[in-house]
Structure formats: structure tokens, C-alpha cells
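Q: Can someone sanity-check these two? First one:
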Amino acid sequence: MIKAAIVGGTGYTGGELLRLAAGHPQLSIEAVTSRQAAGTAVADWFPHLRGHSTLDFVESLPDGGRGLDVVFFATPHGTAMHQVRALLDSGVRVIDLSADFRLRDAQCFAQWYGQPHAAPELLAEAVYGLPEVAASDLATARLVACPGCYPTAVQLALLPLAEAGYLAQAPIIADCKSGVSGAGRSGKIPMLLAEAGENVKAYGVDGHRHSVEIEQEVTRHAGQAADITFTPHLMPMARGIHATVYATLKAPVADVQAVYAQRYTETPFVDVLPAGSHPETRSVRGTNVCRLAVHVTRPGRVTVLSVIDNLVKGASGQAIQAMNLMFGLDEAAGLTLPAALP
């Protein structure tokens, strides 16, 4: 049994980690921290976990985390980077769901996140934990940077073309829509039902933190600079991401559908739909699945539709998928439930 703890367990990603852990055959959550909720029962904070968790929130990890196998950080950016070094030195492996270790350049992190990086010496060691790319690296990783939700949906849409050398540098356009849970669980006026309901709104058009993460990783996959225009939108739904990704090919490809089907043949959580399909966010609600559909709109132009649950494949489910690979478990352990409909 893998002994784990969650730091920052009162948000949506913390709640999803607890929900998924409840159905995992080899994962035991030993502690969940929260300064604001310390002493409160987890099941009082998350009523849907009543009967599945008997833990109370604690202010900090007991004994500094010693004796644990892995710690998940479900905290805002700027927290994990101050605490990870001590855990690693104690032999505890870390999976960070925040952005603290996603970017390779400390100056780039400071520019986009408004603070200097507290552990720049760990950036090179951190494994960017997209399991469809990094399975072998995850097997030996001490520190994993769980990818962002938008970057996950966009990368999985572009990965087959990038790896095969078919992707032109530009134009690449990622037009993405997200449910309001992507903004976190704190009280924010734009997230109120009366504000977000019956409304669609773009944001971050002049520059979004996830844009630099997407470009960093697509550039790595393609072996050339990727010039991506990324525009996120807020949708009146609780969870889900729909990414419509427009790509230009260096030259026409005979069978783009086959390129995608072959690339994802052995990946349990990427489902390439039949040609001409239109995936829906509700088809992945509560699951760790990314569903893709490929459309060749004209010779040399491809539109890829990518849907994920932002809290599962875009965060907590992906973190557990990475953990499974880190500890030599079945990659799909605890993650095989179908979507909840309606």
C-alpha cells in the first residue's frame, strides 16, 4: 500500500484526489493538510466523501512527512517550491499539481507568476508529468510537475503531429473553453452563478500563464519553436475543457487519422474517435480520459477537437496516473470509471 498525504486539501483538486483515492486499490491517504480547516472532518468539508474518509484536516504534515511514500501538493503556485526540498531530502517523492515546477526557466517563472522561484536548482530535475510522453521518466522521478489543464488538452491534440515532424511552426491556434472549477474554489465574483451563468467570456487574450507552458512543451515535442496563439474562455458549466486546435502541416499527410490512432494505440486514457466525430465535454465528466477527433479541413490544415475533465485528466486524475507509473503499478489503477451522465 502506498502511503500518501495531500497538502492543501480543501480545493477542488484536493477533493478530487480524495475521491479518486477512495477507489484506488493500493493508495492510502494518511493525512490532508489545511490551515483554514484544521480540526475539521474531511467529510464535513466534502459531503460526498462521507463514508469514504474518516480523516480530519491537520495544519501540517505529521513528522514533516517522514514515513510517507509520496506527497501531493494541491496548493496555489508559490507554496510547493518552499517545501519540496525537505521532503525530497527525507526520501519522500512529490507530485506538485501547481505551476511551481512546470516551467524550466526560473526567470520565465518569475515573469509569469510574479515572484522569484524559491528552488531553481530543482527545475531541471522535475519531470513534466504528462504520462503519454513521460512514462519512462516517471518511473524513476522524485519530483513531478503535473501539467496544467489547458496545456494537457492542447498538447494531446498536437502531440502526434509534433512528434512525427509534420507540424509547421505557425499558425497554431488553440481556442479553449473551460468550466468555472478551473478558477479554483475560492469566492470570486466572476465565478458566481449570476455572473458566469448564461454567459461566455474570453480572458487572458493578451497573455496567459498557460501559453508559455504550452509553447515550452510543444517546442520540445516538435524539436522546433512553436508559435501558438492561445485564447481561453469561461463557460457556464462546472467542469470540463473543450480545446479546438488549428494546426498547419509542413506538407499534406496522406492519413492524419491513422497518425493519431497509431500514436495513441497503447495509451489507456486517450481515445481517438472515428473520423468526423465531435467529442463532448460531458462524455469525459469525472474521468481521466481525453477524447480527440481529427478533422482535415483542407490539404495541409488540420483541426483537432480535444475534451478533458479539467479536474481529473487536467489535474488530480493525471497526478494519480503519474503516481501509478512512479510506483510500478498498473497505469490505470483507480482511474477506470466511466463518465457520469447526464
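And here is the second, same format, sequence then C-alpha cells:
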Amino acid sequence: MMKVVFLLVPQLHLLDLAGPAQVFSTARDFGLDYALHYVAEQDDVPSAQGATIRRTSPLPELEPADLVVVPGWRSHGFPGNGRLSPVARAWLAGHHAAGGTCASVCSGADALGQAGLLDGRRCTTHHLLQERLASQYPRARVLKDVLFVIDDRVVTSAGIASGIDLALHLVATRHGPGLAAQVAREMVVYARRNGDEPQDSAMLRHRAHLSDVVHRVQDVIDARFTDRLPLRELASAAGVSERTLTRAFGDATGLTPLRYQQLLRVERAEHLIGHGATVEAAARAAGFEDARMLRRLRAR
């Protein structure tokens, strides 16, 4: 079981904590192996919004597969609030050195900087704090106008709600974009993966709608995109007529169900080709009868 450990700092912002926690909690509701922990160096941690959060434990021992997330806090440019003890700094640095992943939301990037994890790495934070972060940690490369950045298992995100985008991306990386899209749908948020580099996924790109009928059909296609899926079978799964499905799918995604399935197949084939597979082998693995259709679709 993978631990997701939230390091609570006094004056933390509740949404910085609750957004990513909701993503991993929802993923757990779908049967995934996440255990959430809320740790701190004191029993009760006051939030910037007035509520007090009680830790579940002191700083625990971690495995390399575990994730540490540091929510942001009311910082006013980092002075005062958010200063970690030498023990906490060593705990963060030790987890990363052992192969673990450390993430932050908003001003939580300062905690990673205190642990020496930003040196020589790309990172980001809230737009009002970017200059301060660059000044405080001159060896870091602070990127602007991005939602999140991943550099050698150090993951930083921008302000407040961007922690949801970061967490969805981490779920997609571990379990696939289809599952991340289901989590986003359950949370009624857009399934985005726009970090610092292009990370376009057809599964997520065409999930930014609220049509339950279309989502149900996409769930079927996402799970079985290598199979032959007649329109009548998809319509039956959604409980609508073929004509209604075609119209609803086009309105929600701009595509037909077949075109959506083809995009998923091409993405899978491109991934396999990028990892050394031949076009012919990739085409078969992605569900094409032969490579000719794959070549035509790639050429588009």
C-alpha cells in the first residue's frame, strides 16, 4: 500500500491540503491502494482559515514508493511561517535520497527548498511568490505560468487549486489517464494535465464535459479501446439510441465514438513505438488489424 503523507505546517491553507487529499481519497474509493496520513511536529496545527487540524502521527518512516505532500501556508513571502525544524528538513531530504517523491502546493515549495530539494531543479509556486522563491533559492530554476513541474521526483505546483491538477497527474502517471478521468469526474472538476510540458491525453482532453451518457460510453471505450466496439453496443451500455449517442458524443467531445477510440489506439501505438516497438507490432497491440490504418491515422 502506498502512503500519501501530508506534512502539516502551521497556518496551512485548507484547500492546499483538501484538494490533493480528496483526489487520493477518491482514488482509494475506486479500489486503489492509497493510505492517507497527516503528520506534523505538533499535535494540533492551526490553519490559515481558522480550523485546527490534528495530526495522525509524528514524522513516520517511509518507503521509496511513498509520496510526501507539503501543502502551502499563509506566508507573506515566506518570512516566519513555514520554517521547518532540522529534523523535518532531514526527513524530507532523506525520503528523496532514498528514492521517494516529495511534492508541494503553493508556498509549500519553500519547505522543499529548506530541505535542499530545489537546488539545480526546475520548480514553481504561486505567481505572487515566484520571485521570492527564486531569490531565496538561487540554484533553483523557477518556472512561471505553469500549473506544476516535475523534476527528478521533486514535484511543485502553483497556487491553491493547482494541487488538484498535480494530484490528478500523479494518479494518471501511476494508474493511467482513464482512472484519473474517473476521479476528476467524481469530483466534478476538469481532468487537466497541463504542467510545464505538453502532456496531452485524449482520455483527459475530451473529458471536460458534464454529459453522464457520454462519460459512461467513454468509460467503456477507455477500458476496451483495443476491442471492436459496435455503436449499438455502446448505445446499449449508455441506455440510449445510436442516434442519440452519436449526437450527444459529438456535442460533448467534437468526435464520434469511433474517432475517439481511434485516438486512444494511436496514442497507445505511439507510446509503444517510442519505446522501441515496430509500427507493425504497435499496431497489433493497439487493436489495429494491420499497420496500414495506423499509418494513415498517424499521417493526419
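A (reply): Looked at the second one. Residues 32 and 188 are 19 Å apart (CA to CA). The chain is about 45% helix and 15% strand.
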